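Incident review: delayed structure delivery

Summary: a single-chain prediction request sat in the queue longer than the usual turnaround. Root cause was a stuck worker, restarted by the on-call engineer. No data loss occurred. The affected request and its eventual output are reproduced below so the record is complete for anyone auditing the incident later.

Affected input:
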Amino acid sequence: MDLGIKGKWAIVCAASKGLGYGCARSLAGEGVNLVINARTDATLQEAAARIRKETGVEVIEVATDITRPEGRTKVLAAAPQVDILVNNAGGPPPGDFRKFSRDDWIAAIDANMLTPIELIKATVDKMIERKFGRIVNITSSAVKAPIDILGLSNGARSGLTGFVAGLARTTAAANVTINNLLPGRFMTDRLRNNFAVEAKNKGITVEAAAEAARLSIPAKRFGDEMEFGQYCAWLCSQQASYIAGQNLLIDGGNFPGTF
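Output delivered after worker restart:
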């Protein structure tokens, strides 16, 4: 299927590895030019070189902290145009909410709520003028089914979800869609860290924690970054113009509810 987005420009945040990389690589496979961001320059350059070699699209890499105002300024300045925005940032650390300080909460809200909002604010009006825009926020399945040790993430990402729910209804008529992708358990560094915390809390091995999690998923496996990326690319397509303001799970059937 031709997704109808060849030649467009996308900003993909936290794209050197994991889910962000999967989204960037999948968009590039559809002919979308990229501005990709991550904090670690060496890893980012490797990702950019790989994408260029495999797809032939233009890739501009900006090594910076997207959660800082100066970082967002650098990324936005590097983009000739922003037709697609994929918001993504590493989740805050897991733990017992009793031990979270005010600074912990502010950092989580800055990274996982306010940073996406600021990037949307900086790009959405030009999208509306051009009558095309796709904004995808990578949040978490924990928004729909909260996980007790992810209190910081549950709170900050739910705040972003509420904001998007209102905004998305005001932009859809201009062919600018805003949606959230809610990943379940994908084998990323973030998930490995969560298993380490769980193992320590329960007095078990990391391998035992991971295996129990795998078996709890109806698909009996963890997700792959590229299948997540393909979902993201399709959500950015011309064909997905009637999907707006939605929270779309991709979790191997793990969420047990009907709705």
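Verification: The mean pLDDT is 95.
Action items: add queue-age alerting; document worker restart procedure.
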